[in-house]
Structure formats: C-alpha cells, structure tokens
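Consider this pair:
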Amino acid sequence: MSISVADYARDCAAQGLRGNYAACRSDFTVAQDYDYSAEEQEVWRTLCDRQTQLTRKLAHVSYLDGIETLGLLDRVPDFDAVSGKLKKLTGWEIVAAPGLIPAAPFFEHLASRRFPVTNWLRKKEELDYIVEPDMFHDFFGHVPILTQPVFADFMQMYGARAEEAIALGGDLMIERLYWYTAEYGLIREPGRPLKAFGAGLMSSYTELRFAVESADAHHVPFDLETVMRTGYEIDKFQRAYFVLPSFDALKEAFRSADLAALVGRCKDKPALDPSAV
C-alpha cells in the first residue's frame, strides 16, 4: 500500500529519524544541498581512509575499480558529478534521499536505474556505528559496485520484479534477497580468493574482516530459494553469508526464476535458521 509524503514525514518524525522528510518530493527524493561543513568533510575522509585499508585487501576487484573510477575518497561526493560518470558506465544515476524511503518508490527508482543515497553524514562520535543508513553507507557501500555492468543489471531487475514478488505475498522473501546480496554478498570466482561486495560489509570495519577472514564466519553457496527463505540479523554480525560464484550466476538465477511458483511454494514456510543453512 502506498503512503503519502506527508504521512511518511510524520511517521519518520515520530520515530526520531534525523532526515528532513518534510522536504521530500513526490518520489521521496530531496536536494543534496552541497553545503557540508569542514567537520563533515573530515568525517568523510576519516571513514574512507580507514575503510580503504581493508577494502583494498578484501573487496572484489569490480568494487575497487568503481572506487577508482568514480573518485569517492577525497571529499564528500557531489551526487550530480558522480552520476555523470556512472551513467556513462552502466546507465545508473544517484538521487538524494533523506534516509530510508518506502519500499514502492525505492523499487521504482531501482527499476529506472536510480539509486537513492542519503544526503547527510554521521557525526564524528558515530564513526564506528550508526542506526540509520547515512551517506557513507549508501555511497561508499553501494555506489562503487554499480559500475559493474552485470550487477548493475541485476539491481535494475530486482527493482522491476520486487513489486511482483510482494503482490504474491513474498515481502520477506524479496527483502532477504536484497539483504544477502546487495548488503552482505560475498563472491568467490573460480581460482580466486573469497572477496566481499555487499554495502553492509563495505561500510563496516569490523564485519568486513569477520565475513571474509574469520574461521567462524558461516559461508554458504548461493542458491536463490535458500537465500529467499533464510532469516537475517539487523543489529549484529550475520550468522550466514551467501557466496556467489559470479555476478552472472546471480543475474541469471533471478532472471529465470518463476517468482509466482517460488513465492507460492515458500511464503508460508518458517524462515530458515541462518546458522543451519
């Protein structure tokens, strides 16, 4: 069910969310308003400097190429400038958002190759953890991998097919697919070491190391149905990380999936325990 911008703004204010939802346009985007303070620029550089010490070693090469191509590290990025580069590579662009937005407009943006990015940045005392997604999570985490053509195609397809899954009763199932790929996805291509690409890992100093390097991390071969049935953790390390053999495998699995049959078969089954999959 759709929700008006005014109603959503009231709900967000009641929850204490810090984004300016009252400034949302009808598609839940806002102006970036590039007026970041010297302290915010320092926070951005600190976060990027610290995290790139790990991503250079643990991130997939396509993510690293995206960082290099888009130039995200020296200062808070200008969304329009980065969009100009990204659009030439994969047809995607960045739109500013006040934070989390409703599912329907989020999917519509993805289906149109627009990625919503929060327009504000965490404070200095929040370097290690923040409850809401901020610009560092959205931009440093998600945007670089959108330069990878096959994954960029998957994200557009995800946006286009998500509403179909929800209409069939597969709300949780489609959420899990996003969580275990776009947020916490790993990839091990033949003959190459395990690498990460999910935004939740790219933007987390501690969980990135755990997911890729720890003997305690539970790595599971990617299977679409298993992913869409497996529960996930919101505020702690994941108890399972699904490992793709390639981005092509992810795109093809979702492209060829019969969502009606898959959702109909699984939507009423209990969620799988991620520790046991």
